[in-house]
Design brief:
With about 300 residues, the protein is an alpha+beta fold. The protein contains 6 helices and 19 strands. Bound molecules: zinc ion (ZN).
């Protein structure tokens, strides 16, 4: 993704690990048959491989610079973290995430605000890193903004709960140390991060994927509007077909309602959507043609 200039704001993306990951189309609510064939025929080749029915996703973070603040949005999986169950593929990773951040000219101490759209394991990992055998906040000067609701819910999940591997292991090593450090700010939705609502950076609660799931809006002055959508959508096909989901929504009905509302609200408005897992070039808009709404990459930005 090329850097995006929005008035006085700049948005850049950096990856945790290079390359896309292919997920079988079947993991999307059992997608198959004619519907899969139709979606694959219409799919941008940057989104997947129709021949092997693989959809591409990516692990990345965004840096939003507002002039006065450097804001890091979602922190991927992290290094050296023990993961099991559905997150076993992210067990004990060793990626040069901070080296990739450095390629943007930024050191960990340059980050003023860390925003986690929700508290799943793949969005909080680099909140902390191992130092002298202890997990400590990676971004020493940052305030970490997290959903108070997600902290309440995921801080007390029993081990037998199906979302335990997705949330509880990372809660221990990537959320609790931040809470203990005093750098966390637990927020309810509608919290204003910068400037007033409607002209800056602000959060919106979008429950469904998690109970406290949030998206982040950015708009500099009267300029173009961007929304960091976290995991409201995991893949661009879900904009064509909002009913598809990855079976990881805490409340599937609310997740579906949120996806539908987003497609209706942002179709043909020019609003830039920045999702946590869309493959490169990641940024894009919802546009409607005869077949209905679909996601179109903006690269370069039109
Ligand atoms: Zn995710």
């Amino acid at each position: 993704m090329k850097p995006i200039a929005l008035g006085d704001f700049t948005i850049r993306k950096f990856v945790e690990s290079t390359g896309n990951m292919g997920v079988p189309a079947g993991v999307f609510s059992g997608l198959g048959g004619e519907r899969l064939k139709t979606l694959c025929e219409a799919m941008d080749p940057r989104c997947g491989d129709p021949a092997s029915a693989l959809f591409y996703i990516s692990m990345h973070s965004f840096v939003l610079q507002t002039g006065s603040r450097t804001i890091l949005i979602d922190t991927c999986n992290g290094n050296g973290k023990r993961r099991t169950g559905v997150m076993a593929g992210m067990n004990m990773l060793n990626h040069d995430y901070l080296g990739n951040l450095a390629q943007l000219g930024l050191k960990p101490e340059d980050i003023d605000v860390v925003l986690c759209t929700h508290l799943h394991s793949d969005h909080v990992g680099w909140n902390t890193r191992l130092e002298n055998g202890a997990w400590v906040p990676t971004f020493a000067n940052a305030r970490y903004l997290m959903s108070e609701i997600d902290v309440e819910v995921y801080g007390s999940l029993p081990p037998e709960h199906p979302q335990y591997p997705l949330t509880r292991e990372s809660f221990e090593d990537s959320v609790l140390p931040v809470l203990a450090s005093g750098q966390a700010e637990l927020i309810r939705t509608g919290h204003v991060v910068e400037h007033e609502v409607g002209n800056g950076v602000w959060l919106e609660g979008c429950p469904g994927h998690t109970p406290g799931n949030m998206v982040i809006h950015a708009q500099s002055g009267p300029g173009r509007h961007a929304v960091f959508t976290g995991d409201v959508f995991h893949h661009p096909v879900q904009i064509q077909d909002t009913i598809l989901n990855l079976n990881v929504d805490a409340d599937p009905e609310a997740g579906l309602a949120t996806r539908r509302r987003f497609v209706e609200t942002y179709a043909d408005t020019g609003t830039i959507l920045l999702a946590a897992h869309f493959p490169d070039p990641t940024a894009g808009c919802v546009v409607t043609d005869r077949a209905g709404p679909a996601f179109r990459f903006l690269d370069p930005l039109e």
